[in-house]
Design goal:
Blueprint: E1 10-14, H1 18-30, E2 34-38, H2 41-50, E3 55-59, E4 61-62, E5 65-66, H3 68-72, E6 81-86, H4 91-100, E7 104-107, H5 112-123
Parallel strand pairs: 1-2, 1-3, 3-6, 6-7
Antiparallel strand pairs: 4-5
Length: about 120
């Protein structure tokens, strides 16, 4: 499926696994977007307070809590669009991420085409 090119976005990726974070950063940069990173909820909060982001991609299992907490701690009016990244995709996980405000829920491992399509869908 071809996806129309998006304008350059500023994307915050929250992921505590260094290797996964590096791959995500490279893939997103390859798509022409600017990437900031965080490895915890605390770092994500700091990044969100310091800058404006078009999109948040967040792992749910983080060392200092659940990635859902990131969205819960942001004023809904100031929230960027968001995609949940997780190793789980049962109905309860999907329901929780939707209720928290995530636009999409991607199950790892994520490939380049899935990521590209998910970013386009989240921003549509």
């Amino acid at each position: 499926m071809d996806v129309a090119p998006l304008p350059s976005l500023h994307i915050l990726v929250v992921e505590d696994n260094d290797a996964t974070l590096m791959v995500m950063q490279k893939l997103i940069t390859h798509l022409g977007h600017r990437v900031s990173t965080a490895a915890s909820i605390a770092e994500a909060r700091s990044q969100l307070a310091a800058g404006q982001f078009d999109l948040l991609l967040s792992d749910l299992g983080l060392p200092d809590g659940n990635g859902i907490e990131i969205l819960q701690q942001i004023d809904p009016a100031a929230r960027p669009r968001a995609i949940a990244l997780t190793g789980y995709d049962d109905d309860d996980d999907l329901r929780q991420t939707r209720e928290a405000g995530f636009t999409l829920h991607l199950t790892k491992p994520i490939n380049f085409d899935q990521l590209k399509a998910a970013i386009a869908t989240a921003m549509a």
